[in-house]
Write a structure and sequence with these properties.
Distance between the termini of chain B: 31 Å
Number of strands of chain B: 3
Helix content of chain A: 25-40%
Strand content of chain B: 5-15%
Radius of gyration of chain A: 16 Å
Strand content of chain A: 25-35%
Low-confidence stretches of chain B: none
Largest sheet of chain B: 3 strands, parallel
Number of helices of chain A: 6
Oligomer: heterodimer
Order of helices and strands of chain A: HEHHEEHHHEEEE
Distance between the termini of chain A: 17 Å
Structural class of chain B: alpha/beta
Mean pLDDT of chain B: 95
CATH class of chain A: Alpha Beta
Shape of chain B: globular
Low-confidence stretches of chain A: 115-123
Helix content of chain B: 40-55%
Number of domains of chain B: 1
Largest interface: A-B, 25 and 24 residues
Number of helices of chain B: 5
Radius of gyration of chain B: 12 Å
Number of domains of chain A: 1
Number of strands of chain A: 7
């Protein structure tokens, strides 16, 4: 089966954090788009990323943050993009530390939970991203990118790096999944 | 010896966020409504992960790490009390959450 055949509907969903977390609705949307096996691979990671938006994208719980989830086929792999208009990683992580952090250090901390000079472990932060990076290393997901505060972290099974990019509002995450090869 | 099975899918096939305040099917609700009552009323508790679409790490942490932090169960007590069944990685992650919570307080 080709991806084009499987992805029988465009997936673009828009939400805000004043709505309840729509995890079941997201799963149903994937299934109705012909992506039942893909959502089985991706659900835990999507759930983590969406919960992160609700928990960390705003300094105040009552503040509304708009976010979206889209799925497209880039000609080679399925690309899931989750994007929010929140405060970004730097403003979420920096207050946890006494020492001033740069946006680059903040992103580095978020994606390197156990290798950082700071202690993110006791704040229970970074667990989900660690799980995604582990899934990339294990071959379940082809690649993972997270962009915030003008920096982009890219992770594949043989490469991890952070590069400077244009500064945009919020946080954007992309997961790519090879069709018929989601789980090696 | 009394055994009790706790099937996560009976709680939700779409496990949700860590905290109840963040939305439905939370780890906090699962822990308080299913896990702790089972732990308090049975000698052995078997937690089965089969039949759910997936489990986010924050759900795992909120369900099992918080048994140590919030409910003050020791890791040794939980090692002797709990058995996890399901996907190997999920079983390992559940134990890791308990181990890390005990280590980090």
């Amino acid at each position: 089966m080709s991806v084009q055949k499987a992805l029988n509907k465009e997936v673009f969903l828009e939400f805000s954090t004043v709505d309840p977390i729509p995890l079941e609705a997201i799963a149903t949307t994937f299934e109705s788009a012909g992506l039942s096996s893909e959502i089985r691979v991706l659900y835990r990671h999507i759930a983590e990323l969406v919960c992160n938006i609700y928990e960390h994208s705003s300094p105040e719980a009552y503040e509304k943050v708009n976010w979206s989830l889209s799925v497209h086929w880039d000609g080679r792999a399925l690309v899931v993009t989750i994007k929010d208009q929140g405060q970004g990683i730097y403003k979420s992580i920096a207050p946890l530390f006494d020492k001033p952090l740069s946006p680059l250090e903040s992103l580095n901390l978020a994606v390197n939970r156990h290798n950082s000079p700071f202690d993110l472990v006791s704040s229970y932060r970074g667990l989900g991203l660690k799980g995604i990076i582990r899934a990339v290393a294990g071959g379940a997901i082809e690649s993972f990118q997270i962009e915030s505060d003008g920096y982009l972290f890219c992770c594949t099974d043989n490469s991890r790096h952070i590069k400077k990019t244009h500064k945009a509002v919020g946080t954007k995450v992309q997961l790519t999944l090879r069709f018929n090869g989601g789980v090696k | 010896m009394t055994h009790r099975y706790v099937y996560l899918k009976d709680f939700s096939e779409h496990p949700g966020p860590r905290y109840r305040r963040l939305g439905p099917d939370s780890a906090e609700e699962f822990r308080e409504s299913y896990l702790v009552p089972a732990i308090e009323s049975s000698e052995q508790v078997i937690v089965n992960f089969d039949g759910v679409l997936g489990i986010a790490s924050s759900f795992m942490e909120g369900a099992f790490g918080e048994l140590v932090r919030t409910h003050k169960y020791s890791a040794d007590f939980l090692y002797s009390k709990l058995t996890f069944e399901g996907n190997r990685l999920e079983v390992i992650e559940a134990w890791e959450c308990i181990k890390e919570a005990a280590k980090n307080g």
